[in-house]
TrEMBL record:
Protein's UniProt name: Nitrogenase
Gene3D superfamilies: Nitrogenase molybdenum iron protein domain
Domain Nitrogenase/oxidoreductase component: 75-467
Biological source species: Heliobacterium mobile
SUPFAM superfamilies reported in the protein's UniProt record: Helical backbone' metal receptor
Molecular functions per Gene Ontology: oxidoreductase activity
Length: 509
């Protein structure tokens, strides 16, 4: 395991640390083999760093999100803290949608519903010339006077990266004055090609400046790294006599402080939990559960057994596993009959997609294709038990058309035409309207815990039946709408042709 460096306030990007790529096309088994946890580079002159993959580099990007937005949806969702976006006002546009998601998440957890506490320093042209540290200092004082938070996060932006504002010294000085953590989060969008580095930036700042350095261990407490999902972990872990500490979204500063006191750390998705899980293990001895993600029978069984082994609750785990298998199998068989012959497609984040495909295969649904928004050849633990892609291939079979692309709309049409699914599963809803215009219904999984665990298989099966019942609506929509692309592009069989041509031209030069 590579040592995480907490001596610097700047987190190492995903592509530097893990070899993250954002464009690839082939079979899932081929990508798994190329990634292969420690078998080295692709051998095609890309570089000598282990686990670096050759990726398809397109000539442009049509649209995506950035690291700063992930800081916005993580640090900005800590209930008794304030996030200051040191940026132009445009970077704060996401506050509207994230406020809606935050309020919905609080309601799902039966927590008091409230608005986010976010401030933007509103950098102008003159600030780009003369610097914006005075605005930042004033914004920190405003945050303190208005909200009296227990912590203040500062998210940087592309603009502040260009200016070179020394936010670290401002944060250090105001932290001493206000006597609360004032935490710089370096998340300039141009520093990383994938937004998941923003997760790491937030978690890096939390471990450096909030987590208790002299913890008093709580042997029944488990950290659950998640987003806004419904509370499915509390009843699951209660079967093992364990309590849940949900972080980062909708947590309190006290919840974050006790991260170092837990008996173990788990997550619903290795993409989100990789950095924080590894940091807590390295710095405070809190073991990260090295197991597949809890999706389908194979993943959930292994996940519960490993958590039970670490927390010394093996007998309770076996009783729970047997009980749940007996409970869900009859209902699962009925769902398989109703879904027989259906073909699904998954378009979500990387590790989450691996888990969803496993659940679809448990439901007897054919999955010939999937789009993941990036790919991490390894996670921070570098433990092969967390190799979610290999777990999928080994336990549930290959995915013939397995593509990596960071939400490029212009590619999605061709990817769906390859496999012609009956429905798609998606988390980031921007791609769903295009599928609807092709007559394909989508299940936007706003609750990321919906398909998790034993009950999750039943949940997802029922959701798919619901959206298939409305397929006629999408077919009617497809019959009366047009796509905004030229016929030449719609006839193109390879959605990655522009990247392949761009690579050829680059090589010739």
């Amino acid at each position: 395991m590579k040592k995480i460096n907490l001596d610097t306030p700047v987190v190492e990007s995903r592509e530097q640390r893990l070899g993250t790529i954002i464009a690839w096309d082939g079979k899932a088994s081929e990508l798994s083999k190329e990634s292969a946890y420690g078998r080295g580079s692709c051998g095609s002159g890309c570089g000598d760093k282990a686990r670096r993959l050759c990726e398809l580099q397109g000539p442009f990007t049509q649209g995506s999100v950035c690291s700063e937005q992930m800081v916005e949806c993580q640090a900005g969702n800590v209930r008794d803290a304030v996030l200051i976006q040191h940026s132009p006002i445009g970077c704060g546009a996401g506050q509207v949608i994230y406020n809606s998601i935050y309020r919905n998440g609080l309601a799902m957890r039966n927590l008091p519903v409230e608005n986010l506490r976010l401030i933007c320093t509103n950098l102008q042209e003159s600030d780009m010339v003369f610097g914006g540290v005075d605005k930042l200092e004033q914004s920190i004082r405003d945050a303190w006077e208005r909200n009296h938070p227990k912590a203040i996060f500062i998210g940087t932006s592309c603009a502040t990266g260009i200016i070179g504002d020394d936010i670290d010294s401002v944060a250090s000085r105001l932290e001493a004055e206000l006597q609360i953590p004032v935490i710089p989060l370096h998340c300039e969008g141009f520093k990383s090609k994938h937004w998941s580095t923003g997760f790491d930036a937030t978690q890096h700042g939390i471990v450096r400046q909030i987590v208790r350095k002299n913890p008093k261990k709580q042997e029944d407490l488990v950290n659950v790294i998640n987003l806004w999902g419904s509370d499915v972990f509390t009843p699951m872990l209660a079967e093992l006599g364990l309590r849940v500490n949900y972080v980062v979204d909708m947590a309190t500063v006290e919840d974050l402080e006790q991260l170092s006191e837990a008996a173990a750390t788990v997550g619903f998705c290795h993409t989100l939990s990789s950095y924080l899980g590894a940091a807590l293990e390295q710095q405070f001895g809190v073991p990260e559960i090295k197991a597949p993600q809890p999706y389908g029978f194979a993943g959930t069984d292994a996940w519960i057994r490993e958590l039970a082994r670490v927390t010394h609750r093996e007998e309770l785990a076996e009783a729970y596993i047997a009980k749940e298998h007996e409970r869900v199998k009859p209902q699962l068989e009925e769902l398989r009959k109703q879904l027989k012959g259906k073909k699904g497609y998954v378009a979500t984040g990387s590790a989450y997609a691996h888990g969803l495909i496993a659940v679809l295969r448990e439901l007897g649904i054919e999955v010939d294709g999937s789009l993941v928004f990036h790919h991490d050849p390894i996670y921070d633990s570098q433990d092969p038990r967390q190799d979610s892609l290999s777990h999928l291939v080994d336990n549930y079979g290959d995915v013939p058309s397995f593509s990596v692309s960071n939400r490029q709309q212009y590619q999605f049409y061709g990817l769906l035409q390859r496999v012609k699914p009956d429905f798609i599963l998606i988390r980031h809803n921007g791609l769903a309207p295009l599928a609807s215009r092709l007559g394909i219904p989508a299940a936007p999984l706003g609750d990321e815990h919906h398909a998790l665990g034993y009950q999750g298989m039943l949940n997802l099966g029922e959701t798919i039946l619901e959206i298939l019942a409305h397929k006629k609506f999408h077919e009617d929509l497809a019959a009366h709408t047009r796509l905004p692309y030229k016929r030449e592009w719609l006839d193109q069989k390879d959605p990655f042709i522009l990247a392949r041509q761009n690579n050829s031209l680059h090589t010739e030069e």
